[in-house]
């Protein structure tokens, strides 16, 4: 069998296609991990004003995040800082929270 230019071109094309498939799978996995982390981050940040509205105490919110979300103190403080800078008028929003006390009470106790 003679190894012509067409043979080598086919081999290159197969290699490229296989590489693209593997790269796509790896990229999807990375994207899923990043998306999940981003979703969790956003959920925690959106939760903080309501937690603050219940306790009006920064340290209590940080303790809740540490206990319920299994975060370190540094992580919890980082989320708190991001939430307070991300949400315009953080304290006024907290004071007008419409989350029922029973809902957050169950979260805090359970």
N to C succession of SSEs: HHHHH
**Separation of the first and last Cα atoms:** 73 Å
Helix content: over 70%
Low-confidence stretches: 95-106
Structural classification: mainly alpha
The overall pLDDT, averaged over residues, is 80
Query: Major sheet: size, sense and barrel closure?
Result: none
Cα shape: rod-shaped
The value of Rg in angstroms is 25 Å
Strand content is under 5%
Let me know the number of strands.
0
By DSSP (H or I, 4+ residues per run), the number of helices equals 5
Fold blueprint:
Elements: H1 5-55, H2 58-68, H3 73-86, H4 90-95, H5 101-109
Helix pairs in contact: 1-2, 1-3, 2-3
Summarize the structure.
The chain has 110 residues and is an all-alpha fold. It has 5 helices and no strands.
Descriptive key words:
110 residues, mainly alpha, 5 helices, 0% strand, rod-shaped
Could you explain the architecture of this structure?
The protein has 5 helices and no strands. The chain is mostly helical. It has helices at residues 5-55, 58-68, 73-86, 90-95, 101-109. It is rod-shaped. It is 83% helix and 0% strand. The chain starts with a helix and ends with a helix.
